Amino acid sequence: MDALKILIIPGSARDGSFNRRLAEFAARQARAAGQEATLLDLRALNLPLYDADLEALSGVPAGALRLQQAIQASDAVLLVTPEYNGFPTPLVINAFDWLSRIPATQEQPAGLAVTANKPAGLLSASPGAGGALRSMNFLRQYLQMAFAMVVVPQQFALGRAHEAFDATGALQDPRAVQSVETVLQSLARLAQALKTA
């Protein structure tokens, strides 16, 4: 049986990002469980702020096509995002807004076609006690309603993230480790079920 391919997308690209650290930890846990985990850096896609005039002039940027290809090649997607004023980061929303604008051609499906029925999981991290929970709740609705993704019910918000990791990048609290693994296991079960259906 082929290993499940999990695309992990940190919603923050800043140096020292707690969400990138959580995404990297989740990737190691997924690999330890026998899955192929790939991290995608949204900032490296070099996507401009979505603008319909820019789209009309230049079309969809190449970075949006790379995001589409990465999602299409995966069996499931794990988004790991902080919150900005209680909402998912502009980095995430802008990338998915561009993704939604990709039209179908003879060579490729539409952007929305690759997200439809794609399993998704959610993690978040914040120095605050809530762990960016509000961001995940908005993101769940956004992915399900606008992109027809199947978001697993299990999710995990890592609070006090500035104290959560050891020097190797591992989570220090066994309960937090178990919570991440619960999300990964739920995502893997759904992805496997849909893959073999």
Automatic annotation (TrEMBL):
SUPFAM superfamilies per UniProt: Flavoproteins
InterPro entries in UniProt: Flavoprotein-like_sf, FMN_Rdtase-like_dom, NAD(P)H-dep_reductase
Pfam family, one: FMN_red
Domain NADPH-dependent FMN reductase-like: 5-162
Domain of life: Bacteria
Name by which UniProt lists this protein: NAD(P)H-dependent oxidoreductase
